[in-house]
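Q: We require from you a single protein entry containing the residue sequence and its fold in C-alpha cell form, and nothing else.
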Amino acid sequence: MRARGACAACAGTGGAKEAGAAAVEFAVLLPLLVMLLFGFVQFGLATGDRIQAASAAREGARLAVVGIDDWTSIGGSGKSFWQVVTEQSGLGAISNCRLETDGVVGGTLTVSFDFPVNLAVPFLPSPPSWRTGTARASMRVERLSAPVGPGGC
C-alpha cells in the first residue's frame, strides 16, 4: 500500500508539470489553428464567388445562343446584355467582357469576363493573380443574334 501511495504522490507532481506544458503548446498552436480556420472560410467564400460567376457566364451564353434582337434592351427590360450578366453574377462589377462567336448556326459562342476575388487570408500576402478570376462559358449557337453585338462592359 505504501508503494501505491508513493506513486500517487509522484504522479500528482508530474501531472502539474504536464498541464503547464500542454497550456504552452496550446498557446503556440492557437494562432496557427485560427489562421487555418479563417483561410478555409476565405477560400470557401472565393469558391462561392467563382461558382456564381460561372453561372452568370453560362446564363449570358444561354441568352446569346437563342438569339438577341436588341443588345441594349434584353427581353424589353431596358437593360443591356452585360448589365443582365452583371446582375446574374451578383459580384458587383465585372470587367474585360468578351463575347466571341463563329457567326453561324451550329457554331460556338463563348461568353467570358473577369470578376473580383475578395480573398484575404490572415498573415499571408495576396498575389495579384488571386485578386481576379475569369468566368467562361461556351454553347452551340441555335439562332443568330443581331449583328452589332453587346459591345464591352
